[in-house]
Specification:
Two copies of one chain form a homodimer. The first copy, chain A, has a domain at about 10-125: Aminopeptidase. Helices cover about 25% and strands about 40% of the residues of chain A. The first copy, chain A, has four helices and eight strands; from the N terminus they run ββααβββαβαββ. Chain A has helices at about 25-40, 50-60, 105-120, 135-145, and strands at about 10, 15-20, 65-70, 75-80, 90-100, 125-135, 150-160, 165-175. Chain A has an eight-stranded mixed beta sheet with strand order 1-2-3-4-5-6-8-7, sandwiched between helices. In chain A, strand 3 (about 65-70) and strand 4 form a beta hairpin. In chain A, helix 1 (about 25-40) packs across helix 2. The longest helix of chain A has 15 residues, at about 105-120. Chain A is globular. The interface between A and B is large, with 37 and 37 residues.
Chain lengths: ~180, ~180
């Protein structure tokens, strides 16, 4: 067993390579993002958002964007951004998407661990997920396992296309650990 | 005692007239907003935000902006906007500023009651305050009195210029009452 190279993590899917995303990656990311956006089940994003709108949201608004590759193929992406300016600027927000075909293989975990490291390196003191939909049980379990606490519960704050009005959680982790 | 006219509320300051804001009001609003922004004690806004930045934030980004007048003089302002798109779009956010000279006279209460009515009329089902700084005791007491519940507490999420890292609350009210 060798020590993972910098920038690589051992996922259950095998080697996961995480690198900064470039504008050219969006052609690959868009089908993954579109799938999540159109479903409207996990993110509070307009399900009809255009490709250009998704580009602005995912590639332009954040401070840093990454892709995760398994066997050289992009299977996931995440961003890091400052959650609020001014007195709130020491807290970052991050968002994660895993390609449907690559789910259940530890990719989200590898991306979140890397996001925490990157956020620490940028000087952030905490990471906040503003809106984790209650029906998104896999995400909640993973964030909890990674040390994120549920610090808020927004009653009926999300209209799920099938479940109707459901709660959303605010989850939070101090990063100085 | 006469019934208050539509658009007017009885504040302790006397008649409060609340009306939609126009671009021309910003010349009056800017000193009020600047005072709050520069202080950096209650809003997670860059304390150095420019006048143009404040215009974009307060007058352009929200869905609706209002001013509150006492004796014909603008003493307060608030906005209403959709808190999150997509499945979160039935929840609005609002922000309030009272001129320093007009504080303690019930203006914020009058504005919040009006904001709730306006939000209901726009079809929103709930109002969420994303970030109420723990040291802002007056605001917390008022929102609680008006039926807002503390549904989240963000640990050390705000860097107060004097108190250092303090918590912020997420406060929330369902509007179908």
């Amino acid at each position: 067993m060798s020590t993972p190279e910098p920038g690589r993590e051992e996922g259950r899917a095998g080697r996961v390579a995480i690198r900064a995303a470039g504008a050219a990656d969006f052609a690959t990311l868009w089908p993954m993002l579109r799938c999540v956006i159109r479903a409207g089940e996990t993110y509070a994003i307009d399900p009809g958002l255009s490709r250009a709108g998704a580009y602005a949201l995912w590639m332009e608004a954040p401070r840093a964007i990454y892709v995760a590759e398994v066997a050289g193929e992009i299977c996931g992406t995440f961003y890091i951004k400052t959650n609020l300016p001014g007195g709130g600027a020491h807290v970052c927000n991050a968002g994660f998407v895993v390609a449907e075909r690559a789910r259940g293989q530890g990719l989200a975990r590898a991306m979140c661990l890397r996001a925490e490291d990157e956020a620490r390196a940028m000087g952030y003191l905490a990471m906040q997920f503003n809106f984790v939909v209650e029906t998104n049980r896999g995400a909640i379990a993973l964030w909890q396992d990674l040390g994120f606490e549920t610090v808020g519960r927004l009653p009926r704050a999300f209209r799920h296309p099938e479940a109707g009005l459901v709660d959303a959680r605010v989850m939070y982790k101090w990063l100085d650990g």
